Amino acid sequence: MRYPLTIVGIGKTRRAGLCTAALNAIQEADQLWGSAALIDLFPEVETQKIVIDRNFREKLPSLLDRGSDEKIVVLGSGDPLFHGIGATIMQHFPAEQVKLYLQPTFIQEAFAMAGIPWSDAVLLSAHADFLPSFLGYVRRYRKIGILCGTEKTESTPANLAARLLKAGLNDLIVTVCGNIGSADSEVFFQGTVEACAGMDFPVLSVMLIEHASDWQPAAEGIVRPDDAFVHRRGLITKRDIRALCFSRLAIQPEALVWDIGAGSGAVSVEAAERAWRGQVIAIEKEPDLIECIQLNQQRFSIENLRIIQGSAPDALSDLPQPSAVFIGGSGGNLTGILDHLLMRRQTAPFKLVMTFALIENLIDALNWAKAHEIAADTIQAGIHETVQTGSGTRLVPKNPIFIVEMTF
Predict the structure, then answer these.
(1) Mean pLDDT computed over 105-128
(2) Cα angle at 258 between 255 and 262, to 5 degrees?
(3) If DSSP codes are grouped into helix, strand and coil, which group holds residue 131?
């Protein structure tokens, strides 16, 4: 008979919160694994005790090599499956070889202490890399619970509140519960984002963020008017063209997008809002346009946008593999850029969308596609706008734009 590996979560009530089966498993264990603080809760248990902290992955091989007749219990905090030791173990053990006895997560305990229902909340942890997507979560969900990091990390309640203030997200209610998971845990703070940003909190804290009960998130996939952006020399992909391009790029939340010839950065900014759990890389060679991209990034508080000053294709060499590429300007290097993208296709496929105002550039793109046997779906977008003339209204055509879509 092979005994299952037992994982026991220990919460605020410590031993008192454990069921009889969990206590019996601990008492009968041949080995007891856990942090020093958790193991010390069972001084009467006379067995081999293995202290683990940040070195758990180093000790994992010996856990994998356990004997079939060994009874091993691993102690974790709260619900160890929530970004804890249990989640790591389950990556290496079949579910049928693991027995779980879990307590509420520390975030659940914090919601309970604050008297806030959490069934509609998103739960995040400093043990996972949520920071690049932090503002995206706040803009999309009414309630968020965050298991915060130590005072040395960016994920302390004060630092997170400072980021909210910088992004203009100050119309929120913040609750911070400290010493979470211990008997002396309590609600340390409830108030405004601004007040939270100036306070110090215990290392083990949970931050709860709430919008007002009548709050609604902004509609996804917004395409802004052109005058919402800082732009120069007319180098901006116009609003209606952006909408058509985004429908073809089909950017997913975790996408990695290249915007080549980013101009003033309108596509970069709105692509980053779509890829809110991913990243957008804007490549632009002109210094004054780089400044426009930076200003637009700041204007809309976009944190997942990386700006590179350089010319494609040379500036593309060291970039991570894209899942979508937009070319708004090629700087006369279109075929070189396409050759680089063709090479990238060997790593993983991706969608490419290009816009052209000049027929010559369109012909170059289509000839390249034909030579490399790549299908090019091409449309011409002819947009007309209404203008008042006397007592009537007439339509004025904008410059036609060609949109080319390829799948690499």
Answers:
(1) 92
(2) 135
(3) helix
Compute the C-alpha angle 47/53/58, nearest 5°. Answer: 90
What token pair was written down for 197?
């940003």
pLDDT in tens, 364-382: 999 999 999 999 999 999 9
Helix extents (H) in 182-308? 193-197, 239-249, 266-274, 287-299
Q: What CATH number has the domain spanning 226-407?
A: 3.40.50.150
pLDDT of 113: 93
Please, are residues 365 and 354 in contact by the beta-carbon 8 Å criterion?
Answer: yes
**Per-residue pLDDT band at 240 (split at 50, 70, 90):** very high
Average pLDDT, the chain: 92
CA dist 82 and 130 (Å) reads: 14
Q: Exposed/middle/buried for 333, CB within 10 Å: 0-12, 13-18, 19+?
A: middle
Q: Indicate the burial class of 162 (C-beta count within 10 angstroms; 0-12, 13-18, 19 or more).
A: middle
- At the second CATH level, the architecture of 5-103 is 3-Layer(aba) Sandwich (3.40)
In this predicted structure, the answer to whether residue 106 has a pLDDT above a threshold of 70 is: yes
Please check whether residue 31 is in contact with residue 50, taking contact to mean a CB–CB distance below 8 angstroms. yes
Whether the CB-CB separation of 22 and 80 falls below 8 Å is answered with no
